Every structure is written in structure tokens, then in C-alpha cells.
Amino acid sequence: MISPALAPVCLTYNPQLVDFSQRSHFRFTKGEKIPLPAQDVWLVCQGVIKLNMLYADGHEVLLGIAGAPILFGACLTSMLAYQATALAEVQLVQFSLPEIEASEFLQQHLLASVRWRLRQTEALLAITGLRRIRDRLLHLLRLLQQQISQPVAQGYRLDIHLTHGDLASAIGISRVTVTRQLTQLRQQGLILFDSQRRLIVTHQLLDQIFD
């Protein structure tokens, strides 16, 4: 049975309540770095972004992923080498800190976003604490299925493509190990790939986690 520490991470804030259609939307293409002004916050309206930290030697660590309607920005972290990258075409709306401070609604939305990001971060930390590498990868795929997937006949298809390096950095293992583990999971029929190479987390994989 899945441990309580690795229970589903859900965002209870209803994105249908958010309507910023009157604001200017900024578009970024897949792979594009998103600027992070010190006194501004971005709202994800469409698409998914990844948040990571870049070390001096060029090594990256995945800190999290965020889709609509999450807020993110440099002012919400203490990481100096903080980066945000579009994982697909994204649309963002920008708010200044004074705007947020003047709006009770934006403050509530920011609180919901911070709460969601905190729970995601704690889930990733719990996953890296698992002893078996296979368990780390299975639970990471479960977390991604909960947060950025769409149901399909075989299971759940991830909305975006994360590289083997992204997966490895998220759970503290090497890229080569991730590649080997994914190959084994595919051979066992626990993951699939569609025609666009998007990963499908099968019902069998989810059953194995909860077995």
C-alpha cells in the first residue's frame, strides 16, 4: 500500500474561478527560458513550465513543475540560480508585487499556489527518500500522473515531455539509470509511448504502486 507520505498531491483551488482575460498574455515556446523579474510574479494560464536550479558546473536540479493556474516567480524562492522553462507553448500573465498586495483575491490565489508548490516539493522530497530506485521512479511517475496528465484508454498520458535528465534530477539518480529503468518498465508493459513520444502511465503501473 502506498505510504501516507506519498499520498496524492492535489490542488483544491478551482481554476475556473480565475479570469484574467483582460490582462496581456505573454507567450513562450517550448524550451524557451522565462524571464524572472525580482518584483514580479507569473500566472500560468495555459501550458506547463518546469522550475529548476542551475549549479555553477552546469548541473541542473528539477525543483518542480507548474501548470494553470499556478503562480511562480523569483520573489517566491530563495534560490539564486532559479530558472523557469516552458515545457510546451505556454501563456502567462504578469503581476507586480504591489498589485498582489492590493488585491485580496490575488493574495488568496497566491496562497493557494504556494500551498500547492509546498505540497509538491514535500512529495518530491519524500520520493527521494525511498531506498529502492525503482520505487522512486514509480512514485515520480505517479506524481506526474496526478498533476499533468490526461486519461486515455491504457491509463494516463503525460501532457508534456520530460527528458530522462529531468526525471533523474528530480529523484537524485543518474540519467543512465533512469533510461535503464524506463526500458524495463516499458518491456513489462507498465509504461507506453504514443505516436508523439508522450509517456503513458498505465493502469497496471498504478495498480502495482498501490498493491
Protein described:
The protein has 211 residues and is an alpha+beta fold. The chain contains six helices and eleven strands. The strands form three sheets. Strands 1-7-2-5 form a four-stranded antiparallel beta sheet. The longest helix has 25 residues, at 104-128. It is globular and about 55 Å long. Mean pLDDT is 86; it is low at 1-17.
Helix content estimate = 25-40%
How much of the sequence lies in strands comes to 25-35%
User: Based on CA inertia axes, which overall geometry fits?
Assistant: globular
| Terminus-to-terminus distance | 5 Å
Secondary-structure element series: EEEEEEEHHHEEHHEEH
> Given the structure, what is the number of helices?
6
Strand order of the largest sheet: 1-7-2-5
Which stretches are poorly predicted, pLDDT < 50 over at least 5 residues?
1-17
Let me know the number of strands. 11
**Main beta-sheet annotation:** 4 strands, antiparallel
Secondary-structure class: alpha+beta
> Taking Cα atoms only, what radius of gyration do you get, to the nearest Å?
17 Å
The mean pLDDT is 86
